[in-house]
Q: What sequence folds into this?
């Protein structure tokens, strides 16, 4: 029996009727590679049943402490029924890409049953009119509560149900006997002991704060990094209001080889810099079309994994999921017209935020939550939602762009080859636009999730992402790296001088 961490539990406390805090993925499969060219629903059930022991959380549900005096626990569900969690449907003809995204967004509108293990998997047949896919392809949509996984552990769990060969046989299911959950007396005793140990944990935490503060001051004094100018000055956009509870999805993908070439346009550039620049370019195009582009650059939250192991294929992460993540603030340079100058600006902002996060300590930044009482955390989240505080307070960020590396070899599900995968996340009050980024087998996908009232035209935003990639590609690929490096720096310097003039 494991207790939820403060961060895991925070996703329970912040859920309300307009925000369902589940995450997951959209996976596309070509079943022509499966034995006989067909994957049956019975085979999928048998396949998942044989792998449940790899992800123990899939058979565990929440057990709340009386009076919510402490964070809940994960306990075995003695009535676990895999047929409740795995569901089957089909798209109506013609079965195209937009239909699939609309169906996926509708599935994501529905909250999970909090009395059962917090996941559901949908098998969607009828992908008969999707470019690049043979007729008869199918999709899998997963929904898992964010209290159970973060991006890295979610990728590990998805990898655990796949194989590296199309003809791999399913092992026999591992025998499972659910453990008896504790009673109220034991839960209250555990709560009492946790509270006794809290002062000692707080002293340990404060012992880590002092050297972090010293590193921060030294870095600022030596100009190793600076406090981001955007703090307290994030512009308000349509993406900083409240959500209605109805989601929309835009999704596209790009070749990894192109992204690697683009990143070389900036000395020390990374794939993440390129992704953030594409996101900034798409947002610039979208808001210009609405006559809503702010003069100041938009700011993204870019999550950082703080796990000891970040290997997305690690079986240890699949068996011990949860949230171990913090984040850094990065400018998307949406105020810059030139894509090359924008790439340089994003790189500089990201590099500064990484240095700042390193000085403070990413793990330290996640630890403070453990000292907020569970009752207080729950009441605060519900009060903020009921008062609509997102529209009344200064925005902290405009969007989220989270990049999780995935496996770089073909994976198979019941013999069907995974063609692509897309990350699905959370939209909430104050942050109604989420970008999930996943890499897989030579491709990188970007999924934008938003609210239907905020983004009524997700297909247009998908075009904005594609156009932002193409303009960045045109500005960088095929040109000498040295000249591109210099051009990017000069264009950024010129843009800054014009601003300060």
A:
């Amino acid at each position: 029996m494991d207790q939820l961490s403060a961060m895991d539990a925070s996703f329970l406390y912040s859920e309300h009727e307009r925000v369902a805090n589940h995450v997951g993925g959209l996976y596309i499969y070509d079943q022509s590679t499966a034995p006989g060219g067909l994957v049956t629903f019975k085979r999928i059930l048998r396949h998942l049943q044989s792998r449940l022991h790899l992800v123990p959380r899939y058979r565990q549900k929440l057990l709340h402490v009386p009076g919510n005096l402490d964070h809940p626990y994960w306990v075995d569900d003695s009535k676990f029924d895999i047929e409740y969690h795995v569901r089957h449907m089909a798209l109506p003809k013609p079965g195209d890409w937009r239909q699939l995204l609309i169906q996926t967004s509708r599935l994501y509108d529905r909250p999970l049953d909090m009395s059962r293990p917090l996941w559901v998997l949908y098998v969607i047949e009828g992908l008969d009119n999707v470019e690049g896919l043979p007729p008869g392809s199918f999709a899998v949509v997963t929904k898992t509560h964010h209290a159970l996984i973060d991006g890295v552990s979610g990728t590990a769990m998805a990898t655990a149900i796949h194989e590296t060969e199309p003809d791999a046989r399913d092992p026999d299911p591992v025998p499972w006997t659910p453990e008896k959950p504790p009673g109220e007396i034991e839960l209250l005793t555990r709560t009492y002991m946790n509270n006794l140990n809290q002062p000692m944990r707080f002293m340990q935490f404060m012992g880590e704060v002092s050297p972090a503060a010293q590193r921060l001051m030294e870095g600022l004094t030596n100009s190793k990094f600076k406090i981001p100018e955007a703090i307290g000055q994030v512009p308000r956009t349509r993406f900083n209001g409240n959500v209605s509870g109805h989601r929309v999805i835009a999704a596209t993908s790009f070749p990894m080889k192109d992204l690697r070439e683009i990143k070389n346009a900036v000395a020390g550039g990374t794939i993440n810099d390129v992704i953030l620049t594409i996101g900034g370019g798409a947002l610039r195009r979208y808001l210009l079309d609405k006559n809503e582009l702010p003069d100041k650059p938009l700011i993204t939250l870019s999550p950082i994994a703080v796990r000891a192991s970040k290997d997305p294929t690690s079986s240890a992460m699949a068996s011990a999921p949860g949230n171990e993540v913090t984040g850094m603030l990065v400018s998307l340079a949406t105020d810059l017209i030139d894509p090359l100058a924008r790439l340089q600006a994003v790189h500089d902002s990201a590099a500064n935020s990484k240095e700042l996060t390193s000085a403070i300590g990413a793990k330290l930044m996640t630890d403070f939550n453990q000292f907020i009482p569970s009752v207080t955390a729950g009441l605060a989240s519900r009060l903020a939602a009921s008062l609509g505080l997102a529209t009344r307070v200064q925005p902290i960020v405009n969007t989220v762009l989270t990049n999780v590396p995935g496996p770089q070899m073909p994976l198979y599900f019941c013999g069907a080859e995974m063609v692509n995968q897309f990350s699905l996340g959370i939209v909430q009050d104050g942050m109604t636009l989420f970008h999930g980024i996943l890499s897989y087998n030579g491709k990188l996908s970007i999924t934008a999730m938003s609210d239907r009232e905020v983004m009524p035209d997700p297909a247009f935003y998908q075009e904005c992402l594609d156009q932002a990639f193409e303009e960045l590609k045109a500005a960088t690929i095929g040109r000498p790296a040295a000249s591109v490096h210099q051009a990017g720096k000069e264009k950024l310097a010129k843009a800054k001088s014009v601003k300060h003039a």
User: Anything to note?
Assistant: The radius of gyration is 23 Å. Residues 169 and 414 are 9 Å apart (CA to CA). The domain at 2-187 is CATH 3.30.559.10 (Chloramphenicol Acetyltransferase). Confidence is low (pLDDT under 50) at residues 306-310, 362-369, 371-381.
